[in-house]
Design a protein that fits this description.
Elements lengths: L3 E4 L3 E6 L12 E7 L1 H11 L4 E8 L2 H13 L6 E4 L5 E7 L5 E6 L12 H8 L3 E5 L6 H16 L3 E5 L4 H4 L2 H11 L4 E2 L5 H4 L6 H10 L4 E5 L5 E4 L4 E4 L12 H14 L4 H15 L12 H11 L4
Parallel strand pairs: 1-4, 1-8, 2-6, 4-5, 8-9, 9-10, 10-11
Antiparallel strand pairs: 2-3, 6-7, 11-12, 12-13
Helix pairs in contact: 1-2, 1-9, 9-10, 10-11
The chain binds adenosine-5'-triphosphate and magnesium ion.
The site of adenosine-5'-triphosphate has 24 residues, from helix 9 and helix 10.
Amino acid sequence: MKKLVCAGEILVEIMAERIGQSFLEPGPLVGPFPSGAPAIFIGQAAALGQPAGLIGAIGEDDFGQLNIDRLRALGADVSAITSHRGHATGTAFVTYLADASRHFVFNISNSAAGLIAIDDAARHLLADADHFHVMGSSLFSDKSAEVVLAAIAAVRGRGGTVSFDPNIRREIMQDAGMREALEGVLAQTDIFLPSGNELLLFSSAGDEQGAIVELLGRGISCIVLKRGAAGAIYHDRQSLVAMPGFAVDEVDPTGAGDCFGAAFVSFWLRGAAPAEALRIANACGALAVTRKGPMEGIHRLADVEAFIARAGTGA
Ligand code: ATP
Ligand code: MG
């Protein structure tokens, strides 16, 4: 089976208990939950049985250990996660507002996560990697962006493939350096996994169809547009496959896109037809939102298949 690698921020997430709870006054919190988009992605891929490893940095503290323990339990390769004495593991405090949007207090670039680097362990992990996945959120610092670009070069240098989930908000794109980094990654992407208006951010076309034609024309093999509860649409130069989402009660949307992406990429690497990869990915995304906490909804392949069987075709 092909080996998948990702690099980037490892965090714990601590959530406000009440909807609309302010961080400007004391209130009840729940967590710590293991988190960080690259960690969620690698955890889900490993849970599906894909050989998968993560390059990242944690502090020598309980929050770091919590992440290592979870990733290891899911079957991920944690050999390229380095632990730094005297630095704290990254954190994200999140509160959900009444309009369903999220408000964050992040400590990422100034935490151990900011110390990410290509060291011997990372080089060893990349030496037999077949695929590298980029999370746009992991371009958060020059250092982290350097790691991502070096990993892409290493994997592509040995004939491997690259997937890219922009995972960004419009505000970040205003930053000139960030835009350049994202465009640089896109130029080397085989599988592009945008959601919402992210598709339009990378194209001069003003509409979805125009953007898809333009991006496929630039050499991207396939574009998978994530559409929340509505499911996802796959596009390549020959075909389009639309797949509705599975009906579930959404408890916490965090992590859905990362679990979806991990499943789609894992099945693409196995040579699955787009419809099969989409079905597994939609199921992983749906299961992800049924639990509070970004990695709590990660399920193993047998459980994902049982969920699909119970749901019928998902249509
Ligand atoms: P994230 O908030 O994690 O960044 P995203 O914006 O990248 O998510 P979404 O489109 O929100 O991606 O979710 C990814 C996939 O998860 C969807 O394509 C769908 O398959 C599944 N999904 C998300 N929300 C729901 C839901 N409420 N019900 C069923 N499936 C869902
Ligand atoms: Mg996302």
